[in-house]
Structure to design on (407 residues):
């Protein structure tokens, strides 16, 4: 178990205030090995340099990937194609992973185990639920960590990967703080050069067609950037503040996109969970904090409850290094929370919350496979024996559209 997540000394400090309070630690070299990568030393208090300018994000469909290429000035890339229709059984199979990007033994083992399941299940799409490059995200759009912590581990899982930004991808002065959301633009830019990595914008939609290949989509994903309203520090850039232009536009986009969607299954994906029984807790009380505009995640809770709940079938999240299939609650109005953040790091083995759960695991590495057809949606949860790079089907759950969220 690796417990290297930042929990601030008090809510809603700026990063500079936090470091000033902890000056004795900040000025002392306390290099520690990254989990599952014992040869790599990381000074968790290192001040990071540089940031790319924030840009207004647009909600894009899969066809809009070319726009991201054009804006990055890159030559066309022979991307792995989006599936054009369900598989032979009339369903799509989608790999779900989160918090994967350590570059360490566990990440490679989980990816190897997932590869075998992907072949058996006919997986045609994958989802990466954030914290794609530990510990502090990319230093540029061509950082070699894209290769060592994403491309190489996932070689052989040759499908498009819908990627979202995690707090470690948007590190500021403190790795994992989410204090510099603009760093996420580097991951958007990287998408123009990768066959796998799909991130046409900081938030976007991706729809998969029904068996007929036209008309109502069978499955639609709504990818969010949750960092500006769930950072462990106060956002100092007015553009990315909780009530700033970026979050106002993202909320308008999400509300409109969910309203316009006629997909059989609507799935919202974002790094930070709405409900969670792991150590980070649920939105509105992250890490035990219930005050402040950032550290508690109160405004992300509002976004989920006011825009998503009752309109989407699933919320898929990482952040907590656990595997959880939670039950819908009165608060969620039929929307089910899935937490799948154990692809690179594992939890502490203990439940920290009491949200109703169909199944949960707080100790093992693992991943999930989502299978969607016109008749049903199934979640298969796999735990992984890291030493053997072997997956074990730990739980399977199936829901019918009648059990889905109220439109």
């Amino acid at each position: 178990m690796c417990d290297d997540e930042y929990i601030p000394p008090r809510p809603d400090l700026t990063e500079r205030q936090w470091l000033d309070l902890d000056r004795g630690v900040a000025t002392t070299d306390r290099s520690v090995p990254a989990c599952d990568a014992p040869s790599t030393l990381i000074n968790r208090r290192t001040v990071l340099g540089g940031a790319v300018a924030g840009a207004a994000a647009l909600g894009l469909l899969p066809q809009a990937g070319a726009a991201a290429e054009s804006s990055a000035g890159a030559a066309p890339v022979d991307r792995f194609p989006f599936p054009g229709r369900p598989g032979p059984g009339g369903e799509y199979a989608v790999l779900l992973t989160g918090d994967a990007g350590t570059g360490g033994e566990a990440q490679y083992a989980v990816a190897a185990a997932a590869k075998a399941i992907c072949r058996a299940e006919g997986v045609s799409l994958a989802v990466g639920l954030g914290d794609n490059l530990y510990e502090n995200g990319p230093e540029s759009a061509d950082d070699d960590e894209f290769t060592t912590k994403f491309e190489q581990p996932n070689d052989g899982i040759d499908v498009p990967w819908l990627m979202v930004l995690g707090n470690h991808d948007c590190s500021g002065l403190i790795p994992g703080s989410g204090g510099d959301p603009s760093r996420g633009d580097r991951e958007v830019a990287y998408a123009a050069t990768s066959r796998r990595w799909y991130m046409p914008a900081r938030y976007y939609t991706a729809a998969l067609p029904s068996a007929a290949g036209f008309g109502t989509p069978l499955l639609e994903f709504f990818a969010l950037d949750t960092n500006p309203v769930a950072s462990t520090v106060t956002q100092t850039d007015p553009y990315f503040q909780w009530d700033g232009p970026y979050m106002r536009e993202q909320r308008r986009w999400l509300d409109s996109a969910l309203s316009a969607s006629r997909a059989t299954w609507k799935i919202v994906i974002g790094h930070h969970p709405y409900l969670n029984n792991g150590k980070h807790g649920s939105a509105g009380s992250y890490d035990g904090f219930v005050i402040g505009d950032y550290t508690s995640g109160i405004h992300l809770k509002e976004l989920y409850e006011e825009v998503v709940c009752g309109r989407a079938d699933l919320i898929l999240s990482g952040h907590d290094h656990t595997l959880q299939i939670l039950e819908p609650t009165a608060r969620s109005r039929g929307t089910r929370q899935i937490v799948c953040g154990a692809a690179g790091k594992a939890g502490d083995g203990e439940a920290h919350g009491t949200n109703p759960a169909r199944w949960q695991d707080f100790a093992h590495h693992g991943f999930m496979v989502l299978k969607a057809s016109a008749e049903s949606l199934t979640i298969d949860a796999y735990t992984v024996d890291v030493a053997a790079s072997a997956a074990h089907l730990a739980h399977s759950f199936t829901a019918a559209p009648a059990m889905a969220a109220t439109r």
